[in-house]
# Entry
Amino acid sequence: MKRDFNEWLSKFRPSIAPYEYYVDFKKIHKNVDSIKVELNILNALIGSKDIENEFISIVTKYPETLKCIPLLIAVRYSEIHIRENDTDFCYDFENMNYSVEQYAVFMRKIGLFDLLEKHIVHSLVDYVTGVETGLDSNARKNRGGHLMEDLVERYIQKAGFVKNETYFKEMTISKITKKWNIDLSAISNKGKTEKRFDFVIKTENMIYGIETNFYAGGGSKLNETARSYKQIAQEVEEIDGFTFVWFTDGQGWKSTRHNLEETFDILETIYSIDDLENGILSDLI
# Structure
């Protein structure tokens, strides 16, 4: 029986994020603890009346404090490139490559001396904890990208499939072709492109290539995804022994529903979280 697209879409979820999705405080505290001693040494600069000379004195005596500096401007990497008046600088904060006086120039021009000598912050440990929290929020996209994969994988396992025996993660077309001797050139542009599926399930009579994603918000990416998967759905019709399955969800689709509906109309094996909860894997495979 043909499914109703509007009814199916109405069950899409606003979020699948657990508590730890938003901020990983365990990682934040670990990162801060790793430089806490050096930060406390640099605390001596807060409210200083002679900050430049005190900075030079501290770094000369404790050169390891330099490694904290990039994080004070919310930078993770140890090298910072500056171009000024047609001159290029590359400050290395792990291994000093300029005089300590030049690093003092960096501190002044980047604004850190003002931050410290004007007592704008009261503790560099607290300040860096805040910076780490902000940087960690930028990692939500990476964490979010795996949420739907993890959810689908739990249902794959619940259906009785075993990792690296009957189901496989992040498997490319070339690996699928080599392992099971199946011609997938119809979806690889005759071998010119290398498609990777989030999961592959192998049964006695069928190979299932599975894609997963969740979109809490809209954007052009959703239209591109829907068009791409519509094309794959059309291409796999030529392949015996292979089925393309797409698990997607998220209220972001409601703002770009038309492209999703086009794919829904031609891809029978497109499913949502609600479908997973109602045992679609057992029914399908």
Summary: The first helix runs from residue 5 to 9. Residues 5-17+140-284 form a domain with the Trna Endonuclease; Chain: A, domain 1 fold (CATH 3.40.1350). The radius of gyration is 27 Å.
